[in-house]
Amino acid sequence: MGKPKIFYAVQATGNGHLSRAQQLYPYLEKMGDVDFFISGNNANLDFKLPIKYRSKGCSLHYSKCGGLNYLDLIKNIKPLMIYKDARNLPLKKYDIIINDFDVVTSLACKLQKIPSVQLGHQASFQSKATPRPDKKSIMGETILKHYAHATNHIGFHFQKYDSFILPPVIKNNFIHAETSDLKHVTIYLPSFQKHCLLNAFSKLPNVQFHWFLGETKSIYKENNITYYPINQNLFDASLLSCHGLITGGGFETPAEALYLGKKLISIPIKDHYEQQCNAAALKKLGVTVLQSVEDDFSEIIEKWYHNNNENPKIEANNISETLQLLFDTYPQKKENIREDALMFI
Fold first, then answer.
1. E-strand spans in the chain?
2. Is 240 within the bounds of a domain?
3. Mapping DSSP to helix (H, G, I), strand (E, B) and coil, where does residue 86 land?
4. Quick check: is 48 in a domain?
């Protein structure tokens, strides 16, 4: 019998989901024939995946300085389009449905009565043991638990808070690389525009910053700040050699920093419940978490830059074991799927 056919849905509300998909793809490719479905349009990575299906799905819209623009977000949700895209996805021809937090695929599975596995960071929030902020959000909890409904769940998080939660997927070039400290601070804060933070960074002339901005088209330097376009190779090189990282409350980038043993400041997006949850987890690990950027931001950076506190290092996911678990536990499918897949590893 031939290789199993695998459908992998990726929510492109940020670069993290796509980055993880790129890391998993070579392993999945050995296990079966993989077709990718990309939903949303917030990602700006130059990714190379065999994308067979696309949908506008749901995308995030940011305010200028660290928050979400809910009005734009709601205006751009097209329920009829989502329903149509879900109805037209030909899921029945696939043996395995993997969903990384995509609502279109979740709806398609319901409409077509097909099982699926939610594989990704958001799946970890099916557990009550996964950290939450002091003030829970009913809406936020509802989205995390039901937005991308699946039959089974395999989650990734900083620590193993529950039996189905595994370490984060770390890129191979980080696992095999040697780190250094060239004393610069790497910045990746996609929900902030340049003018919101420029003054704070400029107040620290003795600290060199590598600032990755979506509006930047080529590398250039002004005073103590070197501006970079969003580019995976450039960012990875900067992170490997940085003194520390200032980033949002996402999952993949902070996980990479912790794995590499880099100092970290996390600024979760305002009113973004998942990022607030991640920030709560990071705070428990001893990471500096800022809920907002105030007038003392430069002073906080300077103190953080010079202190000797180290964040605990975290483990990297064993991808082969994780995918074996996925195939072992895949619900209500033919018994020979796992054997057919694993024979190709």
1. 5-11, 33-39, 51-55, 96-100, 117-120, 152-156, 165-166, 185-188, 209-212, 220-222, 225-228, 244-247, 263-266, 288-289
2. yes
3. helix
4. yes
Residues with Cβ within 8 Å of 59's Cβ and at least 6 positions away in sequence, in order, are 12, 13, 40, 41, 42, 73, 76
Q: Is the pLDDT of residue 90 over 60?
A: yes
Range of the structural domain that residue 24 is part of: 5-169+317-342
Q: What digits encode the pLDDT tens for the residues 31-75?
A: 999 999 998 765 555 677 889 998 876 655 455 575 555 555 555
pLDDT score for 42: 54
- What is the pLDDT at residue 336? 43
Domain membership of residue 311 (yes or no) is no
pLDDT band, very low/low/confident/very high, at 156 (cuts 50, 70, 90): very high
Same domain, 186 and 72: no
DSSP annotation of 11 reads E
What are the tokens at 308? 């000797």
Q: What is the CATH number of the domain that holds 12?
A: 3.40.50
Select from 14, 65, 57 the least CA-distant residue to 230.
14
Q: Enter the tokens of residue 268.
A: 């979760």
| Residues 104 and 180 reside in one and the same domain | no
- The two tokens of residue 116 are 């699926």
Q: Is 162 found in the same domain as 77?
A: yes
Q: Supply the pLDDT for residue 337.
A: 43
Q: Are residues 138 and 261 both part of a single domain?
A: no
Question: Does residue 112 register a pLDDT over 90?
Answer: yes
Q: What percent of the chain has pLDDT over 90?
A: 72
pLDDT higher than threshold 50 for residue 260: yes
Task: Report residue 192 as tokens.
Answer: 């902030």
> Is 312 contained in some domain?
no
